[in-house]
Write a structure and sequence with these properties.
This protein has about 325 residues and is an alpha+beta fold. The protein contains 8 helices and 12 strands. Helix 1 (about 1-80) packs antiparallel against helix 7, helix 1 (about 1-80) runs antiparallel to helix 8 and helix 2 packs across helix 7. InterPro entries: EF-hand-dom_pair, EF_Hand_1_Ca_BS, EF_hand_dom, Gtb1-like, Man6P_isomerase_rcpt-bd_dom_sf, MRH_dom, PRKCSH. It comes from Nothobranchius pienaari.
Length: about 325
Amino acid sequence: NLGQKERAYVEGQMRTLDEGLRLKQQMIEEGVLLWREKQAHLRELQQAAEDLQIKLEEHRWRKHETDQLQEQTSKALEAGDNGFRHQNASLAGLFQLLDSNKDGRISVDEVKAKVVLVHEAKRVLSEDEALVLMGGGREMDLTKFQHTLWDTLTRADNVKIKDGASGGPMSEDPHLKAADRAEWEATNLRKVEEAYETVNMEIRDLQKNLSIDYGADWEFLFLSGQCYKLQMYEYAYSLCPFNLITQKSTTGTEVLLGRWGMWAGPPKNHYSQMVYENGEPCWQGGSRTTTVTLTCGTETALRSVKEPSKCQYIMDFQTPVACQPVLKQRGVHSEL
């Protein structure tokens, strides 16, 4: 009879609600973990950006230094300054010879590998001896090299380049050497700049993503990055929560029905409706907008789409996170 059917319907609704609430609790727990993971990832990206900022400044300084060297070399060669040509070829070439890994700096290990004492050429320098030759630092750039080890090597009374070291300082044209070095530094600078911009772009995107209201317990966070589709007649609808909604016809034409705007549910159930606005322009004027109503269910799926008025769409989106304990209380009371 009618009473039994109504009771069976209500009991079915209560079972759905119980299962929905159970799934919602799981999603809340997953949301909390996902939120923490995103926060940790943001901190990692911010640290990477700080490290790249330091690296960027170092590479800018190196490029500036090599640009100056290239400019000085070019001016001297144009003026026919053979003395400068000889000195610069030796300075730049010797620096390049010792800079084995081509990072623009000479390290203690690089000095030990290619510099020896004049009277003990077969003995490897100790670390203390190398540090003394380098002016006390563990690495040196071209400027520091010119005022420390370069002076010592050119006197040739105490240390020298190890026999058999390839790429002697006088073997290359100084103009080409300076130009190659400048291009090499410019390439490295571009790589660091690109990496820095990429990391900052990721930071901005993640911060924007984390600024969205995903519910009091981040229960809606799992929806971010997902898309739910529904085929209705000649149209395929796609709802991507917190992003956008599209409509695609069988001819392949895709129309934007709105971008994420805000939560628009009533005060007692704020998270029951979403508004997507600023879609593609409507021929009658204005832009397309979509209101998404969230309903309780054991699955997350787009259930229906309607267009009650031109370019104004409404959707029914079912998900466990829309289930509310108060619904169960009302259902029980209605039976009593």
